[in-house]
Amino acid sequence: MNIYEINFSPTGGTKKVADFLANELSREITNIDLSNNNEDFHKFSLTNKDIAIVAVPSYSGRVPSTAAERILKIQGNSAKAIIVCVYGNRAYEDTLVELQDLVQQAGFSVISAVAAIAEHSIAHRYATNRPDKDDYAHLKEFADKISGKLKKNDFTTPVIPGNRPYRKAANAGIVPKPTRACTKCGLCASRCPVGAIDKSNPAKVNKKACISCMRCVSVCPHNARKVNGLLLAIVNMMLKKACTVRKECELYL
To answer: Is the dihedral of CA 142, 144, 148, 153 positive or negative?
Structure first.
């Protein structure tokens, strides 16, 4: 049995959750980074003896379109899938059920689902420093239960919350821009999941291609990429009511 960790994690929060679950299940893990704009995802083909952890962040209650497109290029071949959505303490709405449909369309068999919380990728005041020790305790418990289900050869698909049709996809429309501290090192351009940043001039961004994932902000070694202060204030205000009460991790087995 091989464990595949398939994740889309521009700012690292989703990867923290996926890494923890994968390491609880096995020490031999093959990583597939859906955030890598240069990867050929058609080359990945699993078998029915493999286990895959497929993890994505929730973008306004949906699977990021870029992640969805890349998941569908992978050949599942009846591999067992543990699907994971990670959100910034607001709500994950239709993310899990959409992810279920996507991985099943790619040929995987869904055996469990996890919703977990990580620091909000735009409004960092929400779910700050999560996943925390309590989250990891929950995730360890989840991994033990998933492992127990696998040992019993129970490959049934759980009832996963969400709506079909899914909620309408929203575009955050928040495009980070460089500050005077930018040295034009090009790291943001090379790491952008959708190639939206001009490699020769990082100040130029294809706004239609940008998915507001905030990777360019998180990877900049000079802290030289920022979101417009007014926009950030509006986002914080809009999220305040929904994000104030702490949400907990959930398991569907």
So the answer is: positive
